[in-house]
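Moderator note: this is an archived Q&A kept for reference. The question asked for a predicted structure of one protein chain; the sequence and the answer are reproduced below.
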Amino acid sequence: MEHRNIPMEERPVFMPRVNSDNLVKTDMVHFERHVGFSSAQKRKSINDHHSVIRKKYGFKKVLELSSKSKDKLSVPLSGFYLKLTDQDTGQQYSVENIFQSSKVFEHGGPYTDLLTVPPRKARKDERLQNSGKLIGYKFQGIEWDVGPLTAFYDWLYVNALKQNSQLHDELMQYQAFTDMTFNPKRAVHCEAYSLAMFVALKKRELLDKIAEPIDFFNLYSEFPVSNTEYLFEGE
């Protein structure tokens, strides 16, 4: 009997935790990869990914955040659409715009003009690639170090989502979060991880301690980090 070689892939799943040392548990999940770039093939891969997650952890509701998701909730939760309101000026900017416009490099930045361009244009701005090594972030006059690696992005995302309370009730029904377009071997920041962190903070009733960067950083430091950076240590 001929055996078919099934191509396999692995992607992370991010699970909010309430009664553990971690705010988020991150695990890599192997599943069948459906070859091709069409939306239909991507959705098949997402379905298989989620099927493995449900079987392994006993979950009923898993939310995919990529643009290939069939769940409409994924759109307002995307960093391209989710906005943070400046409490002093009332101006609103997407998480993606703030993140990209806050980067400080060896030879330039922050490029604050990126606050007001389309989010995808901000991400692809050539200066972000040609200004040397990333050395930190600066937003609203406050400077952030590059480490812990996801702290600044997590702070932005969690505070933006906190302001969008109309999303909370539906969001809290989900037990885990994924993003098929996120490859942890090529990137670190992932909105699915930040989203899982938000759910954990809300369930722990800690959202009142995240608005100020120093308070968030102190809270962040109390919990062992479990993002994908640590899955590949030692490789």
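Archived answer notes: The beta strands are 8-16, 24-32, 62-64, 83-85, 92-94, 103-105, 134-139, 142-144, 176-178.
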